[in-house]
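User: Need the bound-state model for calcium ion:
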Amino acid sequence: MNWGAMDRYAKSLIKEAGHHIKHSFFTEIEISSKSSANDLVTNIDREIEQFFITRIRRDFPNHRIMGEEGFGDEIQSLNGVIWFLDPIDGTMNFIHQKRNFAISLGIYIDGIGMLGYVYDVMADDLYSAMKDEGAYLNDIRLPQLTDTTIEESIIGVNASWIAPNRYVENNPMIELVNTCRGTRSYGSAALEMTHVATGRVDVYVSMRLSPWDIAGGMIIAGEVGAISSTLNGEQSSLLEQETFIVSNASIHSQLLEDFIVLKK
Ligand code: IPD
Ligand code: CA
Ligand code: CA
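Assistant: Bound-state model below.
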C-alpha cells in the first residue's frame, strides 16, 4: 500500500467534502432526529457520507467503510483496510452554530491506525497524522506533549457526566472538576481530541463514543504522545460504542485510578 498517495487522496476528498458542507449553508437543510430528540441528523450528514462512500468504492473496491449514517459496510472484524468516517461530527453545532463541527476519518489496516484526519470545516484547519510520521495542523507539525499534573490541567468533559448519570460515579467527577485548573466542552468529540493533541486541553473523556468518532483523532493524538483507551484502561475495540478517554500520557493512569469510577 502506498500510504503517501493514500494520504494525498484522503486529504483532497476531505477538502472537497468540506466545500460541499460550506455550500450547504446556502440551501435549506433538512433536520430530523434519530435515537432521541437531541440525536440530530441532516440531509447533509447523509449526502457527505454518500459522497465519500461512492468515491472510496470506485477507487478502492477492496476497502471497507464504517460510516455513522449507515451507507457503508457491516463491520464485525478489523481485517483488511477499513475507513471509519463521521461525515459531520458535532451535528448539533452544525445546525445551531454553523461552526465547531468536523469531518472525522481514520484509515486502519488489520486494526492498526495508519492515517487520521479531523477537518474543522469552518476554520479550514485540517489535523492529520500518518503512523510514525507525526501529526500536523495544516502544514505545521505538532510538537510532542509535555508532562503535566491534574492541578494544572484543563479537562474536556461534558456537564452530563458531572451531573448524576447512569455511567459514572459523579462525586469523584466533581472532585476532578474542583481539582483541575478548568473545564471545557466543545460538542464535537473529534475536535476535542485535536484539542488534546495540540495541548489546548489535557484530557477529553466521554461515556459513549462510536468508532467513527474516535478513529481519526486517536491516530493524531497518538502521534504526539497522548494515550487513548476505554475507561477500563483497555484499547478501544473500534467495533462498538464504548467509554473513552484521551489524555496527556502523564495523567492518564491517575485519572482512571482516582477520579473516573464507572458504575457497576
Ligand atoms: C457527537 C459529538 C458529541 C459527543 C457525542 C457524539 P455527532 O457526534 O461528537 O460531541 O458528545 O457523543 O455522538 O452525533 O454530532 O456526530
Ligand atoms: Ca460523531
Ligand atoms: Ca456525525
